[in-house]
Model the fold of this input.
Amino acid sequence: MNTTIDGSRVAFLVADGVEQNDLTTVWKAVERAGGIPVLVSPEDGRVQSMVGDQTRDTFAVDESTSDADAADFVALVIPGGVMSADTLRADAAAIAFTMEMFEQRKPVAAVCHAPWVLVEAGIAEGRELTSYPSLRTDLENAGAIWSNAMVVVDGLVLTSRRADERFTQRLIEVIRESSLQTV
Done:
């Protein structure tokens, strides 16, 4: 099976407090598949990553949420991290960008705490989703069907408890399949 996404731009929506492993694991998988990862954030400059409650590396922002155009990307990845997800769900431009990606029928992937952004964007209702376990009630209250699975794919919406190989493989497959349908 061909699992390349050569030249495809994939948006990574993050804010300070993004979980470094969720960001870098998926970023590297997109690069290995030939895609072009682009860091999108409400903040200019750099975003601070975390591993648990410890600060780690910073990453350069490529585009702001207010300037990012959903038409320029084939998919959206929202890595986890409590602080990042909480900031994003309160940012109108981040929510608008997420909604535009979904409305344009492009894959939208959320890891760990990032399904909070899906709730705020109105994407969760009626969908089977997974998340960090503490989000279960939030997702169910938003009308989602919460699953105790590690990875869930519901149409073009992918959720995972963490960014692992199973998740990244499914993400690349869904991006590739959805890109073929729009050609």
The chain has a mean pLDDT of 95. The helical segments are 20-32, 82-89, 92-103, 115-120, 136-141, 165-181.
